[in-house]
Please model this.
Amino acid sequence: DYSVYNQHIYITGGSKGLGKEFAKLMASKGAHVTISARGQGDLDLALEEIKEAAQSREDYENLKFNVVSADLSKYDDSIRALDEASSKHDGRVPDVIICNAGISLPGIFIERPIDEYEKTMQLNYFGALYTTHEAAKRMAQQGVKGKIVMVSSVAGLCGFLGYSSYAPTKHALRGLAECLRHELILYDISVHCYFAGTIDTPSYKEEEKIKPKITKDIEGNPITPKDAAKALYKGICKGNFFITSDIIGDAMRASALGTINNFFFPEIGLKLKLEILFTCIYCLHNIGISPSNNAFFDGLLCGITWVG
Amino acid sequence: MTNTLVNKLLRRNKFQPKGKHVYITGGSKGLGKEFAKLMASKGAHVTICARGKGDLDLALEEIKAAAQSCENYENLKFNAVSADLSKHDESIRALDEASSKHDGRVPDVIICNAGFAIPGVFIERPMEEFEKTMQLNYFGALYTIHEAAKCMAQQGVKGKIVIISSVAGLCGFMGFTSYAPTKHALRGLAECLRHELILYDISVHCYFAGTIDTPGYKEEMKTKPKITKDIEGDDKMSPKEAAKALYKGICKGNFFITSDIIGDAIRASTLGISPSNNAFLDALLCGITWVVTKPLRWYFDKMVRDNKADYPVVPADNVNKIN
Model:
């Protein structure tokens, strides 16, 4: 099992949503954290929360928490941001790169302007690519046997009405992750790809304003960024390439509303559990050549999905 | 694949090219050109689009020759448009020119085929290659489709959009880091559009081609790492066979089209929410593939592990190495 203790974690899009929650989780486990995003204001606020998450640790004084403001959809800015993050650690490239920065602008295909498609691909895919390319190079040169984590989406495994500008970018991330999982064995760098379901973040709230009704009806209910971060962490620790939100532990925790009466099958909870279950089953039916997490279990779920 | 009784019974006649206007990007070479010739031979009007005027003119001759035995040959229109499809305004201009030869009516069938691959070792290739590849393979298709779908919806043309992806759009290996994401993106786009364009009665197909022996393929081999070549193997099909397989798939009304058993196996195992071609066969194939891919992937991973020395990296000497 992998331990993040004393590792330097670099998170793009780390000032809000999943990125920020993951940063806080990493801090609480004793990792050094650098977050990167555009808005300095959001970064500073997030930094406070990250520091707070680690405060109870005895090694708190030795942990380094930093922020870098950058537009990650631009190549030069991505390199500069990675440079700044590394400079706080004697030039050593971060041990773990979480490519999380991304946007989604759902809408009706023929009505949306082309520049939305370009912007979405530029940040979601190229933003991740620029950082990954530079980081992988440095890891190889410095002999750092690091980790690269791509945050894709269930929309990277399937597509439906409304997501024509978003799903291709998340599919592209899957393609990149799969190629890199194989190729970066050359340098002992491991790769993970997180197929997140819907997460209740500030971005999600923005999306909901422009999302077509059919798309909303198809999509399920979101999980909290905290639960999503935990699922990602668990998947990384287990060494899973394909990571989806955990169906058992975290789903039940997410749906548990505190009292014993509510713990087993609260009305909303069951629906949420089923949705998360569906997500995982669905991902497994799309696994192709990617490594399974648990071969037997996966085979079973694959069969169930086919029927579904 | 004609409108015979057999094909009607087997529901393989869902596409009748005769009299339709087929627009093919990257239509001057390889798969695009062979598909153009096939369409011409079935009595379709054809417009091909690509960059090089010289190649377009040569291809146009071959296309006309392919149609000569058609009864309606005199009425068929064959045209070529020169454009850089990686640019938005050129893609629109090209589609306009194609439509103008048919009284402004948008083509009935759009084949988004233009694309290329520059395989190589990830950390050695320049970013610009990744950007160029995405720009033509994905955006090149997107620009044409976006405009065509709009026109089809506005003009009430219940057309077809065919996206040429690749087996590399269903899985990824060393060497294809600049190419596989672009072909995966095309799959994502195709799946969204298959669903959404039901709104306008436009049907969508996605072809996951295996290795095709084209001029483009010969270029690829120049930069392809040895491990990638070993994994791909020597099995390739001719552009003619690939064109036939694509045509067959469209006639059967298949969304996901593949042309060889490996393509089929990978297709079945990455179906997710996409429609099956044949539910029972796909389930069987999915099961078999699930068993086979485990040792296969272990073997591919081993190829990389055992050949690390072939891909040396100059170590950085300005940082303390702490592992």
Summary: Strands of chain A lie at 8-12, 32-37, 65-69, 96-99, 147-153, 190-196, 242-243.
